[in-house]
Automatic annotation (TrEMBL):
Listed name of the protein: Uncharacterized protein
Keyword flag Transmembrane helix: yes
Alphabetic keyword roster: Membrane, Plasmid, Transmembrane, Transmembrane helix
Domain of life: Bacteria
Organism field: Priestia endophytica
TM segment ranges: 7-26, 46-66, 78-95
């Protein structure tokens, strides 16, 4: 489970940086973007500095907590997982303000990637 969560955090971080770079290139924070593609290509290193630590230091422990809580449930695991990810995605609102929508999107993307990886069949080993 922990290996899957690490892989989920890595995939989520990479996808988040790519998506955020297309939605909000770094030059758009300082005014008009004159060369969109140049700005998009320069954005990933900047966003990686913020996204990777946030996903690994905040998202990964929260995901482990949510999974620990929801595995004890008999029914409604899917719904409570989504609600948990959304709640913890919005929770740092006081720190992020405008970027809370990104935090919410990243947390739901984390859930989606984790769900896909958990449903993926493990290869059978022959002994």
């Amino acid at each position: 489970m922990f290996k899957r969560k690490i892989l989920t955090a890595l995939i989520t971080s990479i996808l988040s940086v790519i998506i955020i770079s297309f939605i909000t290139p770094t030059d758009s924070f300082f005014g008009e973007v004159h060369n969109y593609w140049k700005s998009v290509l320069q954005s990933p290193p900047v966003f990686s500095v913020y996204v990777f630590p946030a996903v690994f230091l905040y998202g990964l422990p929260v995901s482990l907590l949510i999974e620990k809580i929801t595995t004890k449930m008999e029914a409604g695991q899917l719904q409570f997982s989504i609600i948990g990810y959304a709640f913890f995605g919005v929770l740092p609102f006081s720190l992020l303000w405008y970027f809370t929508i990104y935090s919410l999107g990243i947390s739901l993307l984390f859930y989606l990637v984790d769900y896909i990886l958990s449903k993926k069949k493990k290869p059978e080993t022959v002994m």
